[in-house]
Sequence to fold (574 residues):
Amino acid sequence: MAEPFLIGENMTGGYGSGADILHDCTLAVEKGEIAVIVGPNGAGKSTAMKAVFGMLNLRGGAVRLNGEDITKLTPQARVGKGMGFVPQTSNIFTSLTVEENLEMGAFIRHDDFAQTMAQVYELFPVLKEKRLQAAGELSGGQRQQVAVGRALMTQPQVLMLDEPTAGVSPIVMDELFDRIIEVARTGISILMVEQNARQALEIADKGYVLVQGRNAFTDTGKALLANPEVRKSFLGG
Amino acid sequence: MIDFLNAVVALSNFVLVPAIAYGSQLALGALGVTLIYGILRFSNFAHGDTMAAGAMFTIFVTWWMQSMGISLGPLPTALLALPFGILGCMALVLFTDRFVYRFYRQQKAKPVILVIVSMGVMFIMNGLVRFAIGPGEQRFADGERFIVNAREFKAWSGLREGLAIKTSQGITVITAVIVVALLFWFLNRTRTGKSMRAYSDNEDLALLSGINPERVVMYTWLIVAALATTAGVLYGLDKSFKAFTYFQLLLPIFASAIVGGLGSPIGAITGGFVIAFSEITITYAWKKVLTYLVPENLEPDSLVQLLSTDYKFAVSFVILLIVLLFKPTGLFAGKAV
Fold:
């Protein structure tokens, strides 16, 4: 089988010189697919994703994007390689307008990004309406849309989302998931960490259940939902 | 009616005009402090002496121009020398940043350490300026002294009170308006300006977006040097240049920035005028204005001066205390101190 588009293979490591949080953990996502990382609190879900993005020191394993080894690159350099990252908190510039947030997302681009901005507005029509408003004045769901839109401005090939639905209402959550599926349909691979495991696995092509920094179960989203052991331990029956 | 007009003219002459000019100078100074706080995240105690250094460079160029017979006619020659002073000040702050602040930035030093570092820079700059230009008062203003002369105003209006507007006051206000307009245009309309605001707002996300912090810091220093030199020269033209007064200006400038909300440019401007008007109205002897306004039998015997001008810095102090106690983020909700 060909290698996945983005793979973090056998990653072992932790923050700074602290204890290892990840142990031999592997995450991968295919082109245009959605991979979801779920697991109990403290399982290292966000840490695993940050490892893929280069935000912690790996003591073992490698990260490859499109066959290229990017293990040693800084997060900024990975943005240049086509990875977009949406942190869980503080993921927008609150005092800047929505439009300025998007412009800052495109900061590394020196070509005309009007087209990309139009695409983001098409994906999130509510942002177009509020484009001159300060992003900090928006509702939780709208702020997440700004955050995702900002990351899309670099035209990434992979979009990494750290709990995009944290703190938003169930209705808004469904809408955000719909948008994420739409983004994936444009050919962008999506790797995301989710607290709402059941809903997330429903839209996932691939699911990773992490426990204590290790891969516990890896399968398609549907298979994981059907797996009685996963259901019992992580999905509440 | 004539009494009322006399009161208005006296009030304008002694309170409004000086306060607007002084407020503009404070606003320009406070803008520099607030930009450093927003981007480099520390209170720059060396700001007063940066103003003095910028003014000093300008004065040297002014003296040279005067000796060469270059002048702007009715306007002070210092305006012509100002761009050169700004360049000198830019070189100075970039030098300081390269050899002092950058080291601490790379160490990720806490803001309180940077504040102490800036105090060291302050003492050195202060010493250098006094060494280079002398500790005494330096005169460099030339050109026409008044836009509106008190005697001519009296003759023209027939009022007992005169109104004087100094050229330096007029230039201060006009320059301040131009500089502030340019600054806001830069911050809100240009890519670099927006990246500075983004960096000030959310440093981590700015890094993720590919904004280069060293570039942002460099542009900040360049802008701060321009603001500080302009403020320093305008203050020197209006009062006179003495290195030590710039050191003393630090308190009202910080009070302005904090009252408005540290990190907020609009706040810095508002704060500057709040402090200037408070300082001048509280230290002004109101007897003259009141004599025109109240009936004869109520005329005040005393000067009706709330505070002697010797204590003018106390006003900034008290306002600072009130703001820090009741609204620590300032009027425009900057960052908490």
